[in-house]
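Exam revision sheet. Question 4 asks you to relate a sequence to its structure. Input first:
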Amino acid sequence: MDRAQKEQLVDELGQIFESSGVVVVAHYVGLTVAEMQDLRARARAADASVRVAKNRLARIALEGKPCESIGDLLTGMTVLTFSEDPVAAAKVAQEFAKENQKLVILGGAMGENALDAAGVEAVSKMPSRDELIATLAGMLGAPASNIAGAIGAPASNIASILSTIEDKAA
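Answer key, structure tokens:
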């Protein structure tokens, strides 16, 4: 890798560290190519990404970024899982680590907040952006549905009373 390629890689990593809602750092010693492809596929399905980069270049890219504190985690064979959604990458990494003991989560960052392994696990248990939007939409729609039910209920009650009276008269 020549100097120009290294500079381009540092720029790409810098953009990742700036724009990501969460970055998870993990060791991946012993993962097979198939297992790594599985991790990448799961990340892609969750709108997250997986990146293996040289630790030295990643530390250079971290300089001056909000998540600069994760530089200490970049030792050994590390893989970065990241996403714009503050939860997606943590969920993917945590689920994969549960199924595959070779992926060991070291920690990560959520904006300026450094996370240890327990912090990444806590973030992974939070609802994703899409789940929150669905919950809010349901909450906003519930009062309208309740009002419609309350308005329609008296008419329904009157119809059932009239039906009962008609049945008794016959």
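Marking note for examiners. The mean pLDDT is 84.
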